[in-house]
Structures are given as C-alpha cells and as structure tokens.
Write a structure and sequence with these properties.
Length: about 70
C-alpha cells in the first residue's frame, strides 16, 4: 500500500505480483485466472493484516482451490 505514495517501491510490488503469478502458472495457463489468483492472495493478506480475525490456513486454502481448480 505504501507504493501508492512512493513510486520507487512499485518495482518491488511488480516483482511480488510476478512471483505470485508464477505460483499460479503450474495450475492454469488462463491469464484471467492467474490475475484472479494474484488479486485474491493480496486481498486475503490484507484481511489478515487489517482485521481482528485473519483468514485461517484452511480458509485460505479453500479459496485458492476454488480460484485455481
């Protein structure tokens, strides 16, 4: 989120998103599904940071299975 105000951090953000996409690619070659995966992972991580009840590992896994399979 800090990259929104500090453009010098956007390179790191881009690398993070590329790494996430690389994690999805063994499961799908659909670019929309890969983009969905990266967005979902970032959203779940934000929930974990910004709420009192972060997603459990089981919840995280269930969502990712739904997105990728």
């Amino acid at each position: 989120m800090l990259a929104a105000r500090r453009p010098e951090l956007r390179t790191s953000t881009g690398r993070w998103l590329e790494a996430l996409a690389g994690q999805a690619q063994p499961y799908t070659d659909d670019p929309v599904r890969v983009q969905t995966f990266t967005s979902v992972v970032d959203g779940l991580r934000l929930q974990g940071l910004l709420t009192d009840t972060p997603p459990t590992a089981a919840e995280f896994e269930a969502v990712l299975r739904h997105v990728l399979l």
